[in-house]
Amino acid sequence: MKSSHKTDHLYLSHELKTIDKNIEWHQHRKKRLEEKLRTKLAQQRKASFVQKWIPAGMALGFVLFTYVFIVNLLNPSSSLLSSASLIEGVHFTYEMEKSKKVPVLTQEGRENSVYPLDASQSIKSLSGEPEIFLYLSNIEGKQTIYSQAFYSTTIAGQTISIHTTPHSETVDELVTSHLPHKKFPAESYTAEEVDIAGHRGVLQINNDRSLPRLTVITDKNVYYFYYTADNGHPDTLIELAKKFKFENDW
Question: How far is residue 227 CA from its own chain's centroid?
């Protein structure tokens, strides 16, 4: 039996995620926030590392660590990336953006990604191919892959956004955290578990039915589907999610 502490943790995690989903961010504000958080995280990790190891007299180890870190920072295609499921030069390349190298999917990478490129051919409310963005992060020698996609709809100004978050929890735990708390259910929305091509998902619908949300959980990632503007239909989110090639999960 799970402890009440664990249950409370899952409930609070779910509530925080719900609050986050209901905040409407303009894209440039979101990007600026992500950059600030990453910078702050890097600074905290650097300070923690120095405080822990330098006083211990491990100067040589620190020098070696610094050398490896700089090599991988200046050459992102080094060994840290070679062990990944994505292959540089095949699935993605690097391009310069504001003096910074950013990964960009090749056509082969797009075609072999989890995102369906031809969804608009069978889902009439969608328009054209999706925009797909790739983010690679190396922390303590471990590569983390994030991705985000935007599907345009036939309604002006409305898109469906999907972003991924890697996880190390069990699917059961994550599903529970996205469902309403049994003793303290939310009053502003309803949520139910749904099957998405053999994967477990949670469909959340606000009482005013304005902004439905869909969360799909695989063994590796959590996929968040949501509309960027009102008047989105939950059936479209489910139909789109069922076309995802989750076997290509990065």
Answer: 15
- The answer to whether the CB of 177 falls within 8 A of the CB of 10 is yes
CA distance 233 to 225: 12
Beta bridge partner(s), residue 61: none
- What are the Cα distances from residue 223, in Å, to 29, 141, 161, 202, 239? 22, 24, 10, 10, 14
Q: CA angle 140-146-151, nearest 5°?
A: 170
What residue has token string 């050398």?
67
Provide DSSP, 185-242: --SSEEEEEEEETTEEEEEEEETT-SS-EEEEE-SSEEEEEEESSS---HHHHHHHHT
Q: What is the signed CA dihedral for 231, 235, 237, 242, rounded to 10 degrees?
A: -170
CB 125 within 8 A of CB 239: no
How far is residue 192's CA from residue 35's CA, in Å, rounded to a whole number? Answer: 34
Residue position matching structure tokens 């069990």: 170
| Element of type H or E holding 134 | strand 131-139
Extract the tokens encoding 201.
Answer: 């998902």
DSSP state of 127: -
Task: Give pLDDT tens digits for 6-39.
Answer: 444 444 444 444 445 444 344 444 454 455 555 5
Report the alpha-carbon distance of residue 180 to residue 178 in Å, rounded: 7
Q: What is the per-residue pLDDT across 115-156, written as a single tens digit (0 to 9) for each?
A: 999 999 999 999 999 999 999 988 777 778 899 999 999 999
Q: Rounded distance, CA 108 to CA 89, Å?
A: 10
Residue type at position 178: H
pTM of the model: 0.66
